[in-house]
User: Which sequence fits this backbone?
């Protein structure tokens, strides 16, 4: 039954689409897969990820053109997790570029996995998990 389902994407709303695309592509090494304006709906969708949508789950960035206030992130959403190869080096580079790192890299509580949390331009938490 599991081969009937496939995770396609996760959507988050962003205030400044170019700033968000730059963050995910420049800092987290994703690629812009596609971007399309929907003038009749006053929004733009941009899809970013680590590979094509056919074989990979991607992140959909939704920009509502007339959104003036920050979005309320809510208490239900936790974070997006990304595996990285050298978490200390990556976090040092992110920090040097001014990226907010509320949880510096180190072993997680009650375990040995090395993790860190960074915040994207809209305040969404991104967990970096060191994968060897």
Assistant:
């Amino acid at each position: 039954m599991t081969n009937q389902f496939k995770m396609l994407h996760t959507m988050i709303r962003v205030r400044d689409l170019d700033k968000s695309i730059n963050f995910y592509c420049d800092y987290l090494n994703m690629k812009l897969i596609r971007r399309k304006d929907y003038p009749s709906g006053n929004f733009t969708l941009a899809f970013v990820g680590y590979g094509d949508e056919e074989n990979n789950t991607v992140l959909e960035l939704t920009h509502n053109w007339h959104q003036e206030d920050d979005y309320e992130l809510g208490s239900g959403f936790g974070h997006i997790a990304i595996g990285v190869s050298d978490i200390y080096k990556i976090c040092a580079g992110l920090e040097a570029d001014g990226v907010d790192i509320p949880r510096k890299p180190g072993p997680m509580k009650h375990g040995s996995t090395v993790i860190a949390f960074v915040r994207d331009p809209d305040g969404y938490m991104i967990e970096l998990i060191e994968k060897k």
Notes: The mean pLDDT is 95. The first strand starts at residue 9 and ends at 13. The helical segments are 17-27, 87-96. The longest helix spans residues 17-27.
